[in-house]
């Protein structure tokens, strides 16, 4: 199977490794790919939003499947012209990608289809927003979200009225260009956060989905959830204290209304939805939609998935997923992110990386090659990922492998999954204080 993978990061390297390890032989191409992905296939000199070049290449080379990694490519509409040419694409069209590309579009969708979520207000004018903030009745922090894509930086939790007003002014003045000229203000949700990925195959004729194991990401850079937020310092799944009834609620209250809502709104969905969920005292509420696999959750899910990934993604792309369960390996998977010195404020690049013989999967996120030497080339540099019989064993396995990969100034957490493990060992569930 000839597959074009769009993207270049840790998520895409994890997907590439899984695509190449299935029973289906794969000739892999990547745009733009990376030095690590180049070891698995051929990299092409196209950026993820270069829709014209990607379309031209696909027209000339006719891949059997295109797999889109990042949201920017989907929002830019890369899937639309490829589907028009009859090329199967795992990735949503531009209209459906607005569920991530526009916070306002997303919130309107949630409310229209009765999906539990935070109370919100959409503003495009400072005076209007100021009046709402000065009479804020939902408790602090005020959550301010730039409407459009802002490279993961367009959300601020303002702990005071003054901070909320300053942030609102900066957003509306174009801190993130057009993306922040519209701002969504939301009430804060309190509880236990989780990441829920769902393969979706929806059009006018049918609506199918398959739920993947819920994961938990860890955003703060230091152990104990301290320090600044990052793109994610590690994740694990499934969550050990979630019970069958909890999974049932996620399906009935969030997933099914999302899938039926897409069909009612004539939104074709052929790819994955990543639901950011907060489990509050009144049950699960939807924080946001992402229209692609999460990072670092993908690294966990690819460890757990016991499927021939090329065929599974092709089934979704061709509208033949059907309502079925995906096959999973037993136990639990974990990934730990290894970050560069200075991340997340800045990242020190071109630092030589020592890679020994770790007994876990090494995933490259921000690296480059200079001869035989790997160098740091981004904030989140590498991931170590593995699966084991349970979360305790998975944590121990990845911890034992950590000394095998190192460089000066490397940052990583040692407590990925520990809070959830202790919660489960204490006999606690989703409604107990987190």
Concise description?
The chain has 13 helices and 24 strands.
Describe this structure in words.
- There is one protein chain.
- It is globular and about 60 Å long.
- Strands 3-2-1-4-5 form a 5-stranded parallel β-sheet.
- Helix 5 crosses helix 6.
- It has 434 residues and is an alpha+beta fold.
- Helix content is 30%, strand content 27%.
- Among the domains are: 2-93, Rossmann fold, CATH 3.40.50.20; 120-186, ATP-grasp fold, A domain (Dna Ligase, domain 1, 2-Layer Sandwich).
Low-pLDDT sequence parts:
none
> Quick one: how many beta strands?
24
Radius of gyration based on Cα positions: 21 Å
Helix percent reads 25-40%
Q: Helix/strand/pairing class, anyone?
A: alpha+beta
Note the overall shape: globular
Mean pLDDT: 97
End-to-end CA span: 45 Å
Largest sheet: 5 strands, parallel
How would you write the strand order of the largest sheet? 3-2-1-4-5
Please tally the helical runs, counting DSSP H or I stretches of 4 or more residues. 13
CATH topology of one domain: Rossmann fold
- Reading off the top of the CATH hierarchy, the class of one domain is best stated as Alpha Beta
Any idea what the CATH architecture of one domain is? Answer: 3-Layer(aba) Sandwich
User: How much strand?
Assistant: 25-35%
What would the keywords be for this entry?
24 strands; five-stranded parallel beta sheet; alpha+beta; 434 residues; five-stranded antiparallel beta sheet; 30% helix; Rossmann fold; 13 helices; Dna Ligase, domain 1
């Amino acid at each position: 199977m000839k597959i074009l993978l769009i993207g270049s990061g840790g998520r895409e390297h994890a997907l590439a490794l899984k695509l190449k390890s299935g029973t289906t032989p794969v000739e892999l191409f990547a745009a733009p790919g990376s030095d690590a992905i180049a070891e698995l296939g051929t990299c092409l000199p196209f950026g993820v939003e270069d829709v014209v070049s990607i379309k031209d290449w696909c027209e000339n080379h006719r891949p059997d499947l295109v797999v889109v990694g990042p949201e920017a490519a989907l929002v830019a509409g890369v899937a639309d012209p490829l589907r028009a040419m009859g090329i199967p694409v795992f990735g949503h069209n531009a209209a459906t990608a607005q569920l991530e590309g526009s916070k306002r579009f997303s919130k309107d969708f949630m409310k229209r289809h009765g999906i539990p979520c935070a109370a919100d207000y959409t503003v495009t004018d400072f005076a209007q927003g100021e009046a709402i903030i000065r009479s804020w009745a939902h408790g602090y922090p005020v959550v301010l979200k730039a409407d459009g894509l802002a490279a993961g930086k367009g959300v601020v939790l303002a702990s005071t009225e003054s901070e909320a007003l300053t942030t609102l002014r900066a957003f509306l003045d174009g801190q993130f260009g057009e993306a922040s000229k519209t701002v969504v203000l939301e009430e804060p949700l309190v509880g236990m956060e989780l990441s829920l990925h769902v393969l979706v195959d929806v059009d006018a004729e049918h609506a199918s989905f398959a739920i993947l194991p819920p994961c938990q990401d860890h955003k703060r850079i230091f152990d104990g959830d301290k320090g600044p937020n990052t793109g994610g310092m590690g994740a694990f799944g499934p969550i050990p204290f979630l019970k069958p009834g909890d999974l049932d609620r996620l399906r009935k209250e969030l997933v099914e209304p999302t899938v039926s809502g897409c069909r009612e709104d004539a939104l074709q969905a052929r790819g994955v939805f990543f639901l950011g969920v907060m489990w509050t005292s009144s049950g699960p509420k939807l924080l946001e939609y992402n229209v692609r696999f999460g990072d670092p959750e993908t690294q966990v899910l690819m460890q757990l998935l016991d499927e021939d990934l090329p065929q599974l993604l092709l089934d979704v792309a061709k509208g033949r997923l059907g309502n079925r369960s995906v096959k999973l390996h037993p136990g639990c998977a974990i990934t730990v992110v290894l970050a560069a010195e200075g991340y997340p404020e800045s990242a020190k690049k071109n630092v030589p990386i020592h890679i020994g013989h770790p007994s876990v999967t090494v995933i490259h996120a921000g690296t480059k090659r200079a001869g035989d030497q790997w160098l740091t080339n981004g904030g989140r540099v590498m991931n170590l990922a593995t699966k084991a019989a349970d979360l305790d064993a998975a944590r121990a396995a990845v911890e034992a492998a950590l000394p095998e990969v190192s460089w000066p100034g490397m940052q990583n957490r040692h407590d990925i999954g520990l809070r959830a493990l202790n919660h489960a060992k204490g006999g606690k569930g989703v409604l107990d204080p987190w």
